[in-house]
């Protein structure tokens, strides 16, 4: 039962097979070979039963090319397809083309958003059941890389804040240290007073004795 589920592409849910990529390479190759033959057979039956021009192109995971063409030459069908596509595009009105492009862009954006949301959930530890071993290893490496980056930013932030505190403390200490001019002010005042006393004494000595008070 396990081998059959692996070859079939997934487990059954409610009677319906879950379509997802087969992880085992051998089982994937076996499934491709079987289903390719069935697909080519169905294309041949469609062309015979309905008289339809059918072309089928298939590239294997290893790059091998397989094809089916009901026409004698596959290139004739491809040329017909290209001509039909160009003609259909030329017949479309500008408004229809714009609306079609906008629809495609909206679908592309929605797909990208879904991919990002799924990746975000996996990074948060959710919806990991569908991940392969390689995907889990990649997630682990990405988380370790993100954690290292966060720790580095955290250390840089701590160092920056510590340096700011040290600088602020140093500035406060510098502001409270008396300057040389402040230290020299009392000494200058004493020298000035002493000089005034000397000048007064000199003036008294220069006055004649008769004018000196008795």
UniProtKB/TrEMBL annotation:
Gene3D superfamilies: Transcription factor, MADS-box. CDD domains: MADS_MEF2_like. Pfam families: K-box, SRF-TF. It comes from the Eukaryota. Its main location: nucleus. GO terms for biological process: positive regulation of transcription by RNA polymerase II. The keyword Transferase does not apply. Residues 16-26, 185-206 have a biased composition (Basic and acidic residues). It is found in: Nucleus. Keywords: DNA-binding, Nucleus, Transcription, Transcription regulation. Residues 1-27, 177-214 are annotated as: Disordered. One of its GO terms (cellular component) is nucleus. SUPFAM superfamilies: SRF-like. Residues 12-72 form the MADS-box domain. Residues 99-210 form the K-box domain. One of its GO terms (molecular function) is DNA-binding transcription factor activity. This is MADS-box domain-containing protein.
